[in-house]
């Protein structure tokens, strides 16, 4: 760090590159923040007085009584988070309840939306919440979907529903367009349902075949383009103005892309209009595709399938970049998988990172090379034999700010926080992962060992003490 500070001061490293090197180091240093807990089951609300220090390490604390299925953090200020449970409940959290992220904090919900009875269907969900996301243009509204075949728009300030949309099919996931009030829904049917939040009904469908849709994701560069992942292993890329046929399908056997096919058509003299644009048997994965995301610059699409493969695609040509992520990848749940690619402006030299929820751990990959940068283990028993461990990760959310008209907040953290990734778990926990940054109040201890943990300090002191005793205890004789 000191040499980079010196390079910046003398002008050999410009401030933008210096900032990227710092944020790159921060992204590679994420670890579990054990002093941040979420208590949503005690019946207490935010502001209730209680000695938090006594409960911060209580393992019985849960954010949800059942499993926590989904998370979402608003991208404008990074202040508000919503979580959805398998019991149909939704909780609203204020992430700035503790002004100092270095101090222990026991978060309690500022609002709770309970599961409702069938006769009150227009209020809450009657089945488990499958996905949550914030309104693309209003930071005080969020969207929820559920197995009860509905999509709902909520107000954070009043914890009440403001709009209800009947999808008429189980909704596995949804994705709001980052710049328009249109929401794409992945349902148990093969079609992608489009909902205009300005109306009270599903607008239209993108027609496809091949089973359920598990994931949808909008292009951050082209406002009318989105990708959908299907149970037959296909990834279709759509222009929503053309509902009958997709623009194309990603093919795991195609590492050259559409530009190569165009050049081949011109060289053969057949003409581009006579060449098939998409191979009929094209599939992106050998099993269902349950995870999709774009890099925030729109250059790459990342897909994940139940074949335990992660693939990176050139969004401009559709070519498989052949990035390999090894055999450590685990993906076995027939449910949407949420992976995170931090904003590209935070990494130096186009070295984007991929945060992957590997069931009971988070793996940080180099997006293009595929090697593991770091690994973070979820507390609790770790097993490779159990099909669905209780502490497995069900959802991940990036905490950033300044994200208007963007998919993610390009600035790490919000308020006083330096950044964070929040995860929900099948056992009802919500956990926080933050970059390792020393508490400024602890930097003036003057012992010269402030960069080490307590065990390392103790070992160094013991070595120095032993050396001192061996020198002072030995009698020196002269001959």
UniProtKB/TrEMBL annotation:
Q: Which UniProt keywords apply?
A: DNA damage, DNA repair, Repeat, WD repeat
Q: Which GO terms describe its biological process?
A: proteasome-mediated ubiquitin-dependent protein catabolic process; protein polyubiquitination; transcription-coupled nucleotide-excision repair
Q: According to the UniProt entry, which residue ranges have a biased composition of type Acidic residues? A: 442-454
Query: Where are the stretches annotated Disordered?
Result: 441-460
Keyword Membrane on entry: no
List, alphabetically, the Gene3D superfamilies matched: YVTN repeat-like/Quinoprotein amine dehydrogenase
**Top-level lineage group:** Eukaryota
Provide the residue intervals of the WD repeats: 61-103, 122-164, 206-241, 282-323
- An annotated GO cellular component: Cul4A-RING E3 ubiquitin ligase complex
Please give the InterPro entries that the UniProt record associates with this protein.
Answer: Rad28/ERCC8/Ckn1/ATCSA-1, WD40/YVTN_repeat-like_dom_sf, WD40_PAC1, WD40_repeat_CS, WD40_repeat_dom_sf, WD40_rpt
Please identify the protein, giving its name as recorded. Uncharacterized protein
What organism is the protein native to? Pseudallescheria apiosperma
């Amino acid at each position: 760090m000191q040499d980079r500070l010196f390079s910046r001061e003398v002008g050999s490293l410009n401030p933008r590159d210096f900032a990227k090197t710092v944020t790159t180091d921060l992204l590679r240093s994420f670890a579990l923040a054990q002093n941040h807990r979420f208590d949503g089951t005690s019946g207490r609300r935010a502001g209730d007085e209680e000695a938090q220090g006594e409960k911060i390490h209580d393992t019985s604390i849960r954010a949800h009584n059942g499993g926590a299925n989904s998370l979402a953090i608003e991208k404008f200020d990074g202040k508000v988070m919503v979580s959805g449970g398998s019991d149909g409940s939704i909780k609203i959290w204020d992430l700035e309840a503790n002004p100092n992220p270095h101090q222990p904090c026991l978060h309690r919900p500022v609002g709770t939306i309970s599961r409702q009875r069938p006769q009150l269907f227009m209020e809450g969900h009657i089945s488990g919440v499958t996905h949550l996301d914030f309104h693309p243009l209003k930071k005080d509204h969020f969207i929820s979907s559920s197995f009860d075949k509905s999509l709902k728009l909520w107000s954070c300030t009043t914890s009440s529903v403001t709009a209800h949309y009947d999808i008429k099919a189980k909704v596995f996931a949804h994705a709001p367009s980052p710049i328009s009030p249109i929401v794409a829904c992945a349902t148990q049917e093969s079609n992608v349902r489009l909902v205009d939040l300005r109306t009270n009904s599903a607008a239209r469908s993108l027609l496809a075949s091949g089973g359920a849709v598990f994931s949808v994701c909008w292009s951050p560069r082209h406002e009318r383009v989105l990708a959908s992942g299907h149970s037959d292993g296909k990834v279709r890329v759509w222009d929503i103005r053309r509902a009958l046929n997709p623009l194309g399908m990603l093919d795991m056997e195609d590492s050259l892309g559409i530009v190569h096919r165009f050049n081949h058509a011109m060289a053969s003299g057949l003409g581009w209009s006579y060449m098939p644009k998409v191979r009929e048997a094209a599939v992106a994965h050998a099993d269902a595709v349950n995870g999709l995301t774009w890099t925030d610059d729109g250059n790459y699409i990342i897909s994940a399938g139940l074949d335990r493969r992660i693939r990176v695609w050139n969004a401009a040509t559709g070519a498989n970049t052949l990035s390999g992520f090894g055999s450590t990848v685990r993906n076995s749940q027939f449910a949407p998988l949420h992976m995170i690619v931090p904003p590209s402006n935070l990494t130096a030299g186009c070295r984007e990172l991929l945060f992957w929820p590997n069931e009971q751990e988070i793996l940080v990959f180099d997006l293009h090379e595929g090697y593991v940068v770091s690994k973070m283990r979820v507390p609790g028993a770790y097993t490779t034999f159990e099909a669905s461990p209780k502490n497995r990760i069900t959802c991940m959310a990036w905490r950033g700010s300044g994200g208007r008209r963007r998919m993610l907040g390009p600035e790490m953290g919000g308020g006083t926080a330096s950044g964070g990734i929040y995860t929900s778990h099948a056992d009802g926990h919500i956990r926080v992962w933050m970059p390792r940054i020393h508490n400024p109040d602890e930097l003036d201890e003057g012992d010269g060992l402030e960069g080490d943990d307590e065990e390392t300090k103790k070992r160094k002191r013991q070595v120095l003490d032993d050396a001192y005793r061996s020198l002072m205890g030995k009698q020196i004789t002269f001959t």
